[in-house]
């Protein structure tokens, strides 16, 4: 995203400069035209002035001629004819000049022609000798008339020139006032645009500088991370098959950073001979599929000659120009590898140990049964056969022996059961707890009938579990409730189940999204002190003496084991004389 | 009774258990002829010997050397000429699954060795009586399942 | 390949009896599958031969009156249990009526001959029927409890367990697994 923003900036700046450029050109051309205009106008004005002046001169010369002529006529002194002849010369000069000025204008040329004819005509009336006074008076009069016409013509021509002068003057002043404004505003706009461009460039530059700084920091921290994490990175240019290693990649191989040109061949030199094939194969895969698999191989470090375990993976990266590169990471996992080897070994040892212990427990319990049974059976035989020969004391003793051996038998049975919950194959099946409950009740039917107890359950859920173990669980808990029921009150056990989210059951201390089936056993028996709620699940732990209630303290421990086998939880709540509640959570 | 007596064979490697067994039947007032063998191999030899009359009921201990009770059970069920024999497993405690497994493999009866002699007599009497019921009432022997 | 059969036992018995008795060339009448009326006198040897032949096929000759009554008691009980239409009457009443003797007499006679009580026999037969219904008809326990007039499934379950030592559901499981094994062996 950053890339494109910068890119757009370049376009933007380019556009700005282009616009500024065009504006300047525009500006220049307008200025040029303007000056040309002004040139033309001033030319025109100069022209007008020249014409007016020359016309004035003309009239002046004609008046000179008149005055000279009149002087001569009056004095007959030829000294007065000098200005007359001078005047004629000047007049011709003027006309010459005027012809130049009106060269461009045919109308003016016509007029000038008329004026020239008139001047000629006037001069024709400048005779020196007159035949009569009448001729003289007529001449003088005609001469005056011509002079009048001449004056009129010249005046009108002067007017025309004046008008031209005015209009051109106006135009000149108009242009003069507008031009600077236009030029100035255009100038401002282009300055503004240039200013924008400048700001943009400055900003981009600052950004680039910052990016650069960050990259440098990143590069530095990356280098440190590589050293700490014991990994190195490399780049393979797929076009020309050249490698680029990061500094730590060199160090991983046991070499100085950038100490040689990395190639595939000299990489293989570092690899353990048995694993060379792995790398060859992996790099072949790049050729074929452009995929680099995650590979595990050993290298022999150049400096220490120790064997290290490496893990490498890589990904294809196509840059903006379409070049394909492979960016790879290699990690030295020797430490982890060794650690996990050790852990595996320990695990195996522990598992073996556990198995042996369980087997021991099972065999011990099982094999203990047989001699015990013999003891009991032989005693019963003696009691029977030697009934008459035994003394009362002896019979009493045998009773005690039988009682003790009965207790022993129960204990062995319980221990056997306990060992069995560990040994069984953990194959889980979908189990309908309603069936489990009814089976448990059937197993306990004698006991239930004896205690006149009621076991209620309804609509229990289905769970994934080991059916035999779940049945044992139910039997043990219900049995427990029956055993510790109030002597004068028939026992009532209620079993319910519901689905519950882990988050809604704070006891579980599980915040995941897991769901559990919560099975609740509630009885109305003697209950217990809540402070013992966790102890009762301990192996051999009892809250009563063996005289008060028979039992070995194994039953609930078996329940806990079964629940743990199912990765569930069991809790007990009790109040003395108010019954007990057992809550079992089994994962769905 | 159809015949005069019921033929019973016990396979058990324990001397004392054999003694309890025969003594119990001696004290019971049922017409039985009991013979005992010491291990699985001896049992199969006995059964396969054409000279011998096949028993009505075989009591089979599970933990025997040379050939276990389960192996014998499988062999007996596999042979059609033993189809009429009722097989009772007579053993020390086993897990629920193991007990059920013996039934699945074809045993008719499972008896957990009692620890009181009188109880043993009761159990054996019950077994023989029930077996007799099956024979006389023409009930389906395949459905004869009993656990004591 | 599996063949499912339904047997007409009466016809079967009749055919066997006829087949076997015809060999002996004596005149007889099959009154029903329980009674053969010989229409001429038979000497001891033939009688013994007939007896041994009949024994081979599982026919027992009932020796005396007592045995006959006991046999009749058994048959009545079986009929009472297996007959679905029978109204639920107390077995003692039913038997006394059917066999025209007092129940006490019948009960004593039965125990003397068979070494078990009538009640016990009834329970055994009932449980046998339950087993049959489970294996061959795949009825649920609720259906069976209803059919055999048990007050509840729990009652049925506990009687089953008391008689056989295993629960009905365990029994179902075992039968199912056994059939799976036989199927595997065939395949």
CATH architecture of the largest domain in chain C: Orthogonal Bundle
State the CATH topology of the largest domain in chain C.
Arc Repressor Mutant, subunit A
Total number of helices of chain B? 5
| CATH architecture annotation of chain B | 3-Layer(aba) Sandwich
- Runs of chain C in which pLDDT lies below 50 for 5 or more consecutive residues are none
The main pleated sheet of chain B reads as: 6 strands, parallel
> How confident is the prediction overall: mean pLDDT of chain C?
82
Tally of domains of chain B: 1
**Pairing-aware structural class of the strands and helices of chain C?**
mainly alpha
Q: Give, in spatial order, the strands making up the sheet with the most strands of chain B.
A: 2-1-3-4-5-6
Proportion of helical residues of chain B:
40-55%
* Distance linking N and C termini of chain C: 10 Å
Structural class of chain B: alpha/beta
- According to CATH, the homologous superfamily of chain B is Response regulator
Inertia-based shape of chain C: globular
Strand content of chain C: under 5%
Topology (elements, then pairings):
The complex is a heterotrimer of chains A (588), B (148) and C (187).
Chain A: H1 2-75, H2 81-101, H3 106-124, H4 133-229, E1 231-237, E2 242-245, H5 247-252, H6 264-270, H7 276-289, E3 292-300, E4 307-318, E5 324-332, H8 334-385, H9 392-423, E6 429-432, H10 433-443, H11 445-451, E7 454-457, E8 462-465, H12 467-483, E9 492-501, E10 515-523, H13 555-565, E11 569-574, E12 580-587
Parallel strand pairs in A: 7-9
Antiparallel strand pairs in A: 1-2, 1-5, 3-4, 4-5, 6-8, 9-10, 10-12, 11-12
Helix pairs in contact in A: 1-2, 1-4, 3-4, 8-9, 9-13, 10-12, 12-13
Chain B: E1 6-11, H1 15-27, E2 32-37, H2 40-48, E3 57-60, H3 69-78, E4 86-91, H4 96-104, E5 109-112, H5 117-136, E6 146-147
Parallel strand pairs in B: 1-2, 1-3, 3-4, 4-5, 5-6
Helix pairs in contact in B: 1-5, 2-3
Chain C: H1 9-23, E1 28-32, E2 35-38, H2 44-56, H3 65-82, H4 91-99, H5 103-114, H6 118-137, H7 141-147, H8 153-164, H9 168-186
Antiparallel strand pairs in C: 1-2
Helix pairs in contact in C: 3-4, 3-5, 3-6, 7-8
